[in-house]
């Protein structure tokens, strides 16, 4: 039964998909950024044609037996090779990140569409011909390093720009708002959302008493709760998530003029999500699903891309907004300030080794460059302390010297010492001012160096919160009102699932009462699902009155997506001996459209087609695969093949499950009998026609030329259902 293991499935997916697009990578080449060159020079090693040595370079002749006093005698402590290996091994782990422990990363570059020098002097935004190297880590928040990928959770979206003027990190999430308004509450938030302290349950999810106890007592979290209970938190792929800087930052131009700015990443493939049941099943069958998907797409040369958008707000306009621009629980609707898309990021290279790159990468919202500054947002201000502090603890004092964290521009200063110091600085002077070192490193002029924006600050010391932070419901309501009925249903389902795992009825009731301030109908239905009292309708101010915007279509995944591409999508093709020629037709059409056709059969060996002249070695067996790993399913014709499929229970169960998860399903010729047997649709194709019924496409005897229609229809359906 080894092939049933989730690892088995995963490996086959990677191999099969890589095989399906063999040669693409070579043709497209791999990006050689300044960062790549630097890593090659200082760190990347290749073990090919080398001899094994100890860590001090002594050649090793055996690794199988330690040095002993006699063949059956005790091991001798003088075996320095044994000690060298064991002592290093014993120290291999470092603390995992206190949040966002589970993540995957990739290298790439960012390119601006046109110069933004009127807005900012920041290096990546000056020259459209400049490719700024980036390293991006995408993560979940709650789970440990080894937790599953497809759990319901916020996704972290951290980007390190290696610019000519130092590293700039944009450390965001796939949700544009946050749970809390002030960083001082972050330890409480994280304690509440992590597994409970007495039994370390549950992993990778917030469906437990502590989390809902905390948030039900914290009205400021309501807006974020609406987002995390939406489909945003069960993404189909890391390649299909938004990224948001969340806070208000500042752009400062060469004249010292500052404007507020919000950052948005928009995935070129659109935003797509799982069905909840599918996410749960995938977490079991392939816990590395999102990590593998990211890795594989890059290996295949189908590079993930995002456009960077900005919302720019003049400092003088900020106070006119109906909420506080410094409040991280608020979002600026596009209807109030449109998003301008200013450039594109492409991820085109997987790390060579996970630990030195992905694990040792340190991101920090305080890694700023000239032209970008922070606002007074109290959540951001606290983050400025936490990230370096945690880096010192997790990685060490000299984390900035590690290859992955090193800037590509020169670094010169008087920092010395600390554990694991790498740099050797010539000369005597390690202080400023000095004459013994010729005064160097010299101070930069104001036009070259970082100058903090001289934002005026007045006030008395206080721990009070600004009154302008007090509206916790208008935007939560606006978000909910922006959803389609389908999405509203998913939100109700998510609240019902999570809160049904809360054993304390008082917490369930408190959440229902809180949500009554967002939407009465939602809270009444939720109360019914949870077995608590339905609240009375409460008098709430309408979102339109408070925000001027009742609903923002851009917030709905379904309303804002264009479902017009099958690029990067996986299509499972069910073949048994005797399948017809529609298989090769469809595979050609799918590959041409950038999709990944993958074949499945009962056994792993080559499967002959109807003509007997050609065979296909399946990517998977039915038992070692699952409908959840595909975006669409295809059942070809061929009398013998279809008869065998109709007898194969695992295959039929898979196809029926795919239907349940709203996959696009296409069946042609005799293959139509399979979807008829499963009663997946009412209307099927007549001879010489194509029919579409509830996501199931059937075609009979349409011959050549069918591939285009089917490919397009399957593509649209795959996109449409996953939204
Ligand atoms: Fe944070 C990691 C995003 C609030 C403290 N955070 C971390 C990562 C992301 C975010 C993407 C993972 C970075 C990586 O891949 O290495 N965090 C956010 C966003 C926030 C936010 C978008 C709200 C807008 N975080 C936040 C607050 C604090 C922290 C308020 C504390 C005051 N975050 C941390 C941390 C972590 C971290 C403890 C854990 C590991 C690390 O930093 O390097 O410092």
Can you offer a commentary on this structure?
- With 723 residues, the chain is an alpha+beta fold.
- The chain folds into four domains: 66-92, no CATH class; 103-209 and 217-401, Catalase HpII,  Chain A, domain 1 (Beta Barrel), CATH 2.40.180.10; 473-559, Catalase, four-helical domain (Hemocyanin, N-terminal domain); 562-718, Rossmann fold (3-Layer(aba) Sandwich), CATH 3.40.50.880.
- Helix content is 30%, strand content 15%.
- The protein contains 23 helices and 19 strands.
- Strands 1, 2, 3, 4, 5, 6, 7, 8, 9 and 10 form a ten-stranded antiparallel beta sheet that branches. A seven-stranded mixed beta sheet has the order 15-12-11-16-17-19-18, with helices on both faces. It has a two-stranded antiparallel ribbon with strand order 13-14.
- Helix 1 packs parallel to helix 9 and helix 15 (505-515) packs antiparallel against helix 16 (520-530).
- The longest helix is centred in the middle third of the chain and has 17 residues, at 378-394.
- The protein starts with 5 loop residues before the first helix and ends with a helix.
- Bound molecules: CIS-heme D hydroxychlorin gamma-spirolactone.
- The site of CIS-heme D hydroxychlorin gamma-spirolactone has 27 residues, from strand 2, strand 3, strand 4 and helix 12.
- Heme binds at residue 387.
- Its cofactor is heme.
- The active site is at 100, 173.
- Belongs to the catalase family.
- GO terms for molecular function: catalase activity; heme binding; metal ion binding.
